[in-house]
Amino acid sequence: VPQDRIRNFCIIAHVDHGKSTLADRLLEFTGTVDKRDMQAQLLDQMDIERERGITIKMAAVRMAYTAKDGLEYELNLIDTPGHVDFTYEVSRSLNACEGALLVVDAAQGVEAQTLANANLAMNANLEIIPVINKIDLPAADPDRVAEEIESVLAIDATEAIPCSAKEGIGIEEILEAVVQKVPPPAGDPTKPLRALVFDSHYDGYLGVVAYVRIVDGTLKAGDKVHFIATGKEFPVSEVGTFAPRMRPAELLRAGGTGYFHAAIKSVTDARVGDTITVAGREGKAVEALPGYRPAKPMVFCGLYPHDSSDFPNLREALSKMQLNDAALSFEAESSAAMGFGFRCGFLGLLHMEIVQERLEREFNLALLATAPSVIYHVYKTDGTMEVIDNPANWPTTTTIERTEEPYVDATIIVPTDYVGAVMEMGRERRGIQDRMEYPAPGRVMLYYKLPLAEIIMDFFDQLKSRTKGYASFDYELSDYSPSPLVKVDVQVNADPVDALSFIVHRDKAFPRGKMLVEKLKEILPRQMFEIKLQAAIGGKIIAAERVSALRKNVIAKCYGGDISRKRKLLEKQKEGKKRMKQFGNVEIPQEAFMSVLKLG
Ligand code: GDP
Ligand code: MG
After folding, report:
1. Which residues contact 49 (CB under 8 A, 6 or more apart)?
2. N or C: which end of the chain has fewer CB within 10 A?
3. pLDDT by residue (tens digit) across 103-133?
4. What pLDDT, on the 0 to 100 scale, is given for residue 529?
5. Whose atoms come closest to the Cα of 117: which ligand?
6. What residues have a C-beta under 5 A from ligand 2, the ion?
7. 20 is in an annotated binding site
């Protein structure tokens, strides 16, 4: 089809407002997949994505649609990830589009991620088409939701399309609106190639499959492409489109989207957000598309195999995952308490959970994770600054002049009844309240500046439970701010247990240290000797507990009796040993260790 009949668009929504269901209906209506194949297509997706109902991997699907004007259009639906960890990826895929369907639940109204995604779409200059979904629900109130879209998002909602993705109502109206309202792509096919890499995945046979939006020029097999940011060059093996599976094509041209592969060994060589051009042309007529930045891990934790002999397997699994995940970082570390493992970096908490879960499921590894931490800036008395992502590397107290931690700008939308609960949480989490707005009757929008470290500690679950599930939440990183931070060491019989040490705001050091040693006391099995548990800052004890010794005769009784019972006991002990971790001179069961780590 000619360029003026191409439409590139995406669907943006708060989680659960119906993005995936609507995408399925569009694919069905345009005959891109038939109803029979629908299930099969869903099964192709990653397990975790389906189970959690979140979209992790983006895709672009080409649909052919004959509009009411009798002409055939090429509609490219670009999928966007729906989670705050992947904001950069969302912004990249939005840049591959000219329009966005903004889906809002007719019963729930505008939520925090509706707002965040709408802002990203406006920044990308997209034509936004509001869709009010789930009008079949008894609680649906499309008029109120239309008002909210206008007042909160400042988007004209007079032509918002009422829809039920579930019942297939409004689907044709949506496709017509895409054709009529989303502008066709600009771009000149006769100019030298310029294309945006907006996503990629790794395929065991093909190497990296890069998803591209062609801005100018054309791309075909045999072309040698040059990545502007990484400087890497590769001869293209194949180009094509997703319809919805990979389908080879002769040529991709300006305005269109599709994929190419070129025997690229790792996604780090084909970065999301990078611009490609034809080798030899770079720096001449071709300028990189704006906004590229390499994925940067923000949240770190130590990952250790339960069974220390799994260390090489863990390394191999992490390397394999990195081929497909440029945002994952790892380096080997060792800990007296945990043995050999890796310090890993992630975009955020969800990213961390996804990686852990996949390591356990797909690579069959049993893992232990230390409490997550953020990246701190430590300014030292000698004028230097250290970037610390691991409590183990925290400098000696006397060399520290001041410290900073990362903050986020958070938006919380909640029914009026729960404002008190949210504000209480804001205080507990060291939040600074910016302002408060009333987007609609009965609803409040709160803006906060919060330390990222407080958010990675169970913030979202707490918020949900304290507001009976009604609060919605979104955040973006803002900047580093001064914060008096200290490192708390945990000692068992005067030996520091490195895996339990943590960095915390000075005012919270005492309660958290106390909580940790109390918890340890509860779970540590009694030994033949007394165990001293202490939390300390730079050698100064801030909390202490004792686990008293077992009396001798208890042990004696245990070991008496006939020989077979004794052997059984020994065997059991041996089995137990495997799952023990050494705490100073005290061995404790793995499970106990886990429960301490969960405290964060
Ligand atoms: P996503 O998180 O935005 O991708 O949302 P999903 O498409 O996964 O939908 C979330 C839930 O809402 C699912 O249980 C859907 O079946 C349901 N849902 C989606 N669209 C509709 C609709 O139009 N009406 C009703 N009643 N439920 C819907
Ligand atoms: Mg979905």
Report:
1. 55, 56, 57
2. N
3. 999 999 999 889 989 999 999 999 999 999 9
4. 81
5. 1
6. 19-20, 55
7. yes
Helix (H, G, I), strand (E, B) or coil at 87: helix
ipTM: 0.99
Residue 534: strand pairing partners:
491, 544
Task: Please name the amino acid found at residue 346.
Answer: F
Tokens of 293: 């930045």
Between the CA of residue 269 and those of 18, 229, 264, 489, what are the distances in Å?
34, 9, 7, 40
Taking the centre of ligand 2 as the mean of its atom positions, its distance from the CA of residue 80, in whole angstroms, is 9
The residue written with tokens 């039920």 in the block is 164
Residues 172-193: tens digit of each pLDDT: 999 999 999 999 999 999 999 9
- Residue 169 CB partners (closer than 8 Å, separation 6+): 135, 136, 162, 163
Q: Ligand 1 centroid vs 171 CA: distance in angstroms?
A: 14
Whether 483 is in the pocket of ligand 1, judged by its Cβ within 6 Å, is no
* Residue 572 assigned ligand-binding role: no
Q: What is the pLDDT of residues 217-258, one digit of tens each?
A: 999 999 999 999 888 999 999 999 988 778 899 999 999 999
pLDDT the model gives residue 412:
95
Does the Cβ of 108 fall within 6 Å of ligand 1?
no
In tens, the pLDDT along 380-424 reads: 999 999 999 888 899 998 999 999 999 999 999 999 999 999 999
Residue 75 in contact with residue 41, Cβ under 8 Å?
Answer: no
pLDDT value at residue 504: 93
Ligand number nearest to the C-alpha of 59 = 2
Q: For residue 133, which atom of ligand 1 is closest to its CA?
A: 23
Q: Does residue 19 line the site of ligand 1, with CB under 6 A?
A: yes
User: Residue 440 is inside which H or E element, if any?
Assistant: strand 432-440
Q: Mean pLDDT, the chain, as a whole number?
A: 86
C-alpha 33 to ligand 2 mean position (Å): 18
Asked if residues 164 and 170 have their Cβ atoms less than 8 Å apart, the reply is yes
Which SS3 state, helix, strand or coil, does residue 290 take?
coil
Look at residue 557 in the predicted model and tell me its pLDDT: 46
* Distance from residue 21's CA to the centre of ligand 2 (Å): 7
Q: What is the best residue among 11, 14, 19, 21 to mutate for testing ligand 1's pocket, by most ligand atoms within 8 Å of CB?
A: 21
Question: According to the annotation, is 105 in a ligand binding site?
Answer: no
How does residue 584 score in pLDDT terms, banded at 50, 70 and 90? low
Closest CA to 336 of 34, 73, 583: 583
Integer angstrom CA distances of residue 559 from 548, 572, 578, 588: 21, 13, 21, 20
Answer whether 485's CB lies under 8 Å from 506's CB. yes
265 is in an annotated binding site: no
Q: Give the confidence band of 562 by pLDDT, cuts at 50, 70, 90.
A: low
In eight-state DSSP terms, residue 160 is P
